[in-house]
Design brief:
The complex is a heterodimer of chains A (601) and B (353). Chain A is of the alpha+beta class. Chain A is built from 17 helices and 18 strands. The two termini of chain A are 21 Å apart. Chain B has a five-stranded parallel beta sheet, sandwiched between helices. A two-stranded antiparallel sheet of chain B has the order 4-5. In chain B, strand 4 and strand 5 form a beta hairpin. Classes of the chains: A alpha+beta (601), B alpha/beta (353).
Chain lengths: 601, 353
């Protein structure tokens, strides 16, 4: 495990058979990601990793001078799997800039839509994309001995999920043919229907506006949502124990597997689901309403909760250029010198960023990606922390657990974990799950947290349906508050995209967008070495990942690396690319200097 | 005399067909994600042969593929070398203009083994288009440029027909098939693919397309013609704020002049949509999207006239709408493949100009 706050060269001294391997594109993710590694096949370890993204579109450039009210429609198009998270976050930023507070029912409707998005997106990613890395076909191909063990291993929760052995679970995950793969694909459709009930269309919503929603709050809309939600709740009672069995088996079958994808605990969560009783979108009260969110915002460093205050989180944001294809904006305009509370805003903060693209050749000794390096400035230490989101759920659950603020019956934060209580369903009794803070921030725990967060989102959904119907029954059916766009204003939105932290920062001048910078989770996870030489989280997590795959360089699939990278739920319309070469032997070599100079100076 | 077999019992004219699905235009992968939502037919219906009469379909899509890296790229290289035949090429995302700068790339997929540099999306289009049986553009970015081709964009993005030429024909004589939508409506995309597969199998005649290369049965009507709020329009009863269940035309809905079936079909299983469920139509299926519809939340020009006139003679309204419809069915002029950026953005560092 490497610490990501310091500039790192490869620490491996005295190595032998180092082979350059790359995977480009990494499939079964959204977007374009390449991973370029050097692997020491004698020591069975990755010694170096670069991640690269091959797409640039230029949102911050073409949004300039547009009408601010267009921003959620436009930014939704950043991402094809969580576009609605962008639309929602943009609406939050606009609400702040326009000084408008939507009616409570509108907030419950947005929360229901976003809950459905988590239920859908984690579900399809976990079992139709990541799950393939754990399926029979893949395990047989990469680790035949593990497959043999899986056939003999009884699944501890067979009674709950119906699969007798771990091998049965793996077979069920085979793409298109596996029973569970097909079931989960179908569930991903039902959950998207729930989403469409609230936000109109998946994945770019039609009914979200600053000030509220256009969704018609009929009894029918909530009934249609609730019956589907209860089917999902029942599905969760099978899915959570199934994944616990599968993931626990990997620790048992491959001792040391906890090191795969492991990095220092450096997690960020920007909070999710507003509470309309507290949230007024005023920057000055942001700490208060941020802490009332149903997923608590927070920065977790080495297992310690540094802050849950959205103002602190906002002030700490820094965008570093690192090894990306952009020019510095030191000589460009400073849009925001102080926040509304009077705190100074850094030149490297998204409010003050100017995006200046500089297309150039890819050079792993220099600049090699279109992703910049977001960092969080830790004022205690002066470090620019390369926080990751762990794909979202692990950071959300970790921050929420430590903060001990969330407690609404269906979900309770306990300090050491999170309890999720699901009611009786057609075929199964009430069930309580407890997610416990894990020992590591690694591939398996990121994946495990994803499953638990699906149940968390379902539990939130139940509560939000109750609250929405409370409004409807009381006759409070307004869903929209009128507003005016000011001539000059600033706004920021904080949300959790499915795969982690999401912020939108906007500056309005003369009634038009003067600056707009969205920061989705993937730039946080997929970024390259920054100006201090600190590698991005994927790079950091893959570097020093041990290799358990039984194939040598000639037939190498890189499965352990794939599991490490996919555990972050890469989504690169916002940022990366992997490539598996043919295993060219790079150099036989006994000193670490061979790799010097590859890290950015 | 030999017994005539039923159509679905006959062997398809082509036994196997590959679908090379390229997501590396300037896009968001939203169209790939969208087709995983389709149920009429679903992806697995097509891939697993649950639709009668189809050839065996091999789908190569990066969001869903089992293979990674070189194992995955092999299909691309084979297709470009003529070793993967026949194949249908699907493009998702707009085509950037790689000619407006001296080096680097806007969009790429895979690595050139000789140079170690990424292979641009445009290079792949150049290699694959002449070999493809048909090309389908999924979503508004690939069809007409879409969001990433907005005024002031830095990449010179355009639709595929702008890049290859509107009169381009595949080696089988087929024009580009455009299925716009941002993202594409799930069943619209899968149904179009299914139609083409039937055509390949020799079971369907040539696909009917309009002058914007859209399947006529999907895009022949307007949003307004399918909208269940049109009754309010007829009665001159309009919404004045976004939470209202009435006609949204005065709040920015472009439904009367936009070719799209979402109000009829819903988004999934008849659920959701746009103005029918409270979302203004922003014209996301149209060649003129997004510029000709912005600011989205202002009433379209002419809305005031046509709404007061809604009690007047219908033929007049149809004529006026016909004019607006023709305007929004045209792309803005800066979407072109020439070696110049004319979007309004002034680049500092493209190594040209």
């Amino acid at each position: 495990m490497e610490t990501a706050t310091l500039p790192t060269e490869s620490k491996e001294a005295g190595s032998g058979n180092i082979v350059e391997m790359s995977w480009d594109p990494i499939t079964r993710i959204v977007g374009s990601l390449g991973i370029y590694t050097k692997i020491d096949f004698d020591k069975k370890k990755v010694v170096q990793c670069h991640s690269t993204s091959s797409i640039f579109r230029g949102y911050s450039i073409f949004m300039k001078n547009k009408d601010p009210r267009d921003s959620h429609f436009i930014t939704s198009r950043i991402c094809g799997i969580c576009g609605d998270n962008h639309a929602t976050c943009s609406v939050y930023a606009q609400n702040m800039a326009y000084g408008v507070k939507p009616p409570p029912l509108a907030e419950w409707i947005v929360n229901l839509g976003e809950a459905a998005e988590y239920m859908f997106d984690h579900n399809i990613f976990q079992d139709n994309l990541v799950g393939v890395d754990f399926c029979e076909m893949m395990v047989k191909e990469t680790n035949p001995s593990v497959w043999e063990k899986a056939k003999k291993k009884q699944a501890p929760h067979a009674k709950e999920h119906g699969y007798r052995t771990i091998a049965d679970i793996m077979t069920a995950l085979n793409p298109f043919e596996g029973e569970f793969y097909r079931e989960t694909l179908q569930v991903s459709r039902m959950t998207r229907e729930m989403f469409c009930l609230m936000e109109g269309r998946h994945v770019h919503p039609s009914t979200l506006y600053p000030g509220g929603v256009g969704t018609v709050p009929s009894i029918q809309v909530f009934t249609d949502y609730l019956v589907r939600l209860m089917r999902y709740v029942e599905f969760m009672k099978k899915v959570v124990p199934l994944h616990d069995d599968l993931f626990d088996f990997f620790y048992e079958a491959l001792p040391g597997y906890e090191e795969v994808g492991r990095r220092r605990i450096l997690l960020g969560c920007w909070g999710s689901f507003q509470d309309p009783a507290v949230c007024d979108y005023d920057y000055k009260t942001m700490e208060k309403w941020g802490n009332a969110m149903f997923v608590t915002p927070g920065v977790v460093v080495d297992g310690e909760l540094v802050t849950t205050n959205l103002v602190d989180i906002n002030l700490g944001l820094r965008i570093l250029l690192g090894s990306s294809y952009y020019e510095d904006w030191d000589n460009s305009e400073t849009f925001v010198r102080n926040d509304p509370l009077g705190n100074p805003i850094d030149k490297k903060h998204p409010w003050n960023q100017t995006t200046i693209p500089k297309p150039q050749k890819r050079d792993f000794n220099g600049n090699y990606t279109w992703v910049m390096s977001p960092r969080w400035f830790d004022k205690r230490t002066g470090d620019h922390l390369a926080l990751d989101t762990g794909g979202g759920p692990i950071a959300r659950l970790w921050a929420t657990a430590l903060a001990k603020r969330v407690d609404f019956g269906y979900v309770k934060s306990t300090g050491d974990g999170v309890e999720i209580n699901l009611p009786k369903t057609a075929l199964k009794p009430e069930v309580s799950f407890k997610w416990n803070i894990p020992k590591w921030s690694n591939a398996i725990e990121r994946d495990r947290a994803r499953t638990y967060f699906q149940a968390y989102a379902a539990a939130c959904g139940l509560y939000f349906v109750e609250k929405a119907l409370e409004e409807v029954y009381a006759g409070r059916t307004e869903t929209f508050t009128p507003f005016k766009v000011p001539e000059e204003a600033i706004g920021c939105g904080f949300h959790e995209a499915v795969r982690g932290v999401l912020s939108h920062h906007m500056v309005i001048r003369k009634g038009k967008i003067a600056n707009y910078h969205p920061y989705p989770p993937t730039p946080w996870n997929a970024n390259p070495r920054d100006i201090y030489g600190t590698p991005g989280p994927y790079e950091d997590a893959v570097q020093n990942t041990p290799i358990f795959e039984e194939n040598g360089p000639d037939k190498f699939k890189g499965i352990d690396i794939m599991r490490a990278v996919r555990s972050f739920d890469p989504c690169l319309p916002c940022g990366v690319h992997m490539y598996l070469g043919n295993g060219k032997v790079l150099k036989q070599q006994h000193t670490p200097t061979a790799l010097m100079g590859l890290a950015k100076k | 005399m030999e017994t005539q077999k039923n159509v679905f019992e006959r062997p398809p004219a082509v036994k196997e067909v590959h679908v090379i699905w390229m997501t590396t235009g300037l896009g968001c992968d939203g169209d790939s994600v969208s087709v995983t939502a389709a149920m009429q037919p679903s992806l697995e219906d097509v891939v697993m042969g649950n639709v009668p009469g189809l050839p065996k379909v091999h789908l190569h899509n990066p969001v869903l593929a089992y293979e990674v890296g070189d194992d995955f790229m092999k299909f691309w290289f084979d297709a470009a070398a003529g070793k993967l035949d026949p194949f249908v090429l699907v493009l998702e995302g707009s085509v950037p203009n790689e000619r407006i700068k001296s080096e680097g790339y806007w969009a790429a997929l895979g690595t050139d083994p000789d140079t170690g540099q990424p292979i641009t999306t445009n290079e792949w289009i150049d290699r694959l288009a002449p070999k493809a049986l048909a090309i389908v553009c999924a979503g508004t970015c690939a069809t007409y440029g879409g969001i990433h081709a907005m005024e002031g964009n830095p990449t010179g993005a355009m639709g595929l027909a702008d890049y290859l030429g509107w009169t381009w024909r595949s080696k089988a004589g087929l024009p580009i098939v455009n299925v716009p939508g941002c993202p594409v409506q799930p069943d619209n995309m899968m149904e179009t693919l299914l139609y083409l597969l039937y055509q390949v199998a020799g079971l369907a005649p040539i696909i009917p397309l309009d002058d914007q290369l859209r399947p006529t049965w999907l895009f022949g009507k307007t949003v307004h013609e399918g909208c269940d709020r049109a009754g309010y329009y007829e009665q001159g009863d309009f919404a004045h704020e976004y939470g209202s269940p009435k006609c949204l035309v005065k709040l920015g809905c472009w439904g009367p002049v936009v070719n799209c079936n979402v109000t009829k079909r819903g988004w999934m299983a008849g659920i959701g949509g746009c103005p029918n469920v409270g979302g203004i139509c922003i014209g996301c299926t149209m060649p003129g999207f997004p510029d000709k519809f912005m600011p989205f939340m202002d009433a379209p020009p002419g809305a005031a006239l046509s709404t007061t006139a809604s009690g007047l003679y219908g033929g007049f309204i149809r004529m006026m709408r016909g004019i607006t419809n023709r305007t929004v069915n045209k792309e803005p002029k800066w979407r072109h493949p020439r070696a110049a950026l004319t979007t309004g953005y002034s680049p500092k560092h493209y190594g040209r100009n």
